[in-house]
Specification:
Aconitase, domain 4, 7 strands, alpha/beta, 8 helices
Length: 171
């Protein structure tokens, strides 16, 4: 599934604090199937989240989002989260989430301009995340061209396959 960086994302905010760990995001240590994880994702931080999250919702969080193990946010995509916007993310979580691809944006200051339940508009091409209710804006930095290409291709494995096919076609 590719992600169109030209599309504006607009959704209801689920606000989290700092150091949301991967065991809480993907509770694989306790639930072995995706169906079970979907029923329990992030419940240790927000017990209502798995029951009330809806397709198109956006997660906004503080620093060090996705700390802990190597697990990407696969379950977040499965429950319909449209994007993740954070003050900062662990390097491994950021890399794995981009490889999926799941839209994740590092936007310093995001926590100060939004409240839980408000609507956030993410316009990557305009380099901004905007609180629809207040008009407050924070910058979203552009990705390097290779990361943009990963999103366009539908993930890192798809990009690798395209490059492999292109290179082997020349020989």
């Amino acid at each position: 599934m590719s992600f169109d960086l030209n599309r504006v994302i607009r959704g209801r905010i689920w606000k989290f604090g700092d150091s949301v760990d991967t065991d809480s995001i993907n509770p694989f240590y306790k639930y072995s199937t995706m169906a079970e994880m979907k029923l329990h994702t992030l419940e240790s931080f927000r017990p209502e989240f798995p029951k009330e999250v809806r397709p198109g919702d956006i997660i906004v969080a503080g620093r060090n989002f996705g700390c802990g193990s190597h697990r990407p946010g696969t379950v977040l995509r499965e429950v319909g989260v449209a994007a993740i916007v954070v003050e900062s993310a662990s390097r491994l979580f950021l890399r794995n989430t981009i490889a999926l691809p799941m839209p994740i944006f590092v936007a310093p200051g995001i926590g100060a301009i939004v409240q839980d339940g408000e609507v956030l508009e993410i316009d990557y091409q305009a380099n901004r995340a905007r609180n629809v209710a207040t008009g407050a804006v924070v910058a979203i930095p552009k990705f390097p061209p290779l990361i943009e290409r990963i999103y366009e291709c539908g993930g890192l494995p798809q990009l690798a396959r395209q490059r492999y096919l292109a290179e082997t076609a020349r020989t």
